[in-house]
Amino acid sequence: MSWDGRVDTAAEVVLWAKRSGDGADLLIQFRNLRANSKTGVIGKVGRSQDAQDLGITGTIGAAPNGAWCSSVVHAPSSTGTYIYSSLLYYVNGVPFGAGLDGLIRVYYA
C-alpha cells in the first residue's frame, strides 16, 4: 500500500515457515508481482525494527518472477523470534511500501 493509503499489489512480503526441531525455520520473501517501473527497491529483514542482520537487497528482479529471500532464521516454540521486514520502492516518484513484523511463535496442532 502506498504511504497515502492507496492499495498497491505490485509487491508483497511473504513469511514461509517449516517445522524444525523445537520450533520452525522462517524465511521472509519479497516478491515482485507486477511490472510498473519500480525504482530504488530496497528489502531488509532483521531481528529488530529497522535492522538488516538477516539480509538486505537492492533489487528483487523483474516481475512477475522476481523475488528475494532473507537468511533462514530458527524460531523456537518456547520463546519465539522477533522479525521485522520492510520493502520500499518508488513508482513515478510516489513511495510505496510493504512490511511484516512481530513476534513469531510456533504452535503445533
Task: Explain what you see.
There is one protein chain. It is built from no helices and eight strands. By secondary structure, it is mostly beta strands. Strands 1, 2, 5 and 6 form a four-stranded antiparallel β-sheet that branches. The radius of gyration is 15 Å and the shape is elongated. It starts with 10 loop residues before the first strand and ends in a 5-residue tail after the last strand. The model has no long low-confidence stretch (mean pLDDT 79).
- Mean pLDDT level: 79
First-to-last CA distance: 33 Å
Please bin the fraction of helical residues.
Answer: under 10%
The largest sheet is:
4 strands, antiparallel
Order of helices and strands: EEEEEEEE
Report low-confidence residues grouped into runs of 5 or more: none
Gist of the model:
The chain is mostly beta strands. The chain has strands spanning 11-20, 23-32, 38-46, 55-57, 67-69, 73-76, 81-91, 94-104.
Structural topology:
Blueprint: E1 11-20, E2 23-32, E3 38-46, E4 55-57, E5 67-69, E6 73-76, E7 81-91, E8 94-104
Antiparallel strand pairs: 1-2, 2-5, 2-6, 3-4, 3-7, 7-8
Keywords, separated by commas or semicolons:
56% strand, mainly beta, single chain, elongated, 4-stranded antiparallel beta sheet, 109 residues
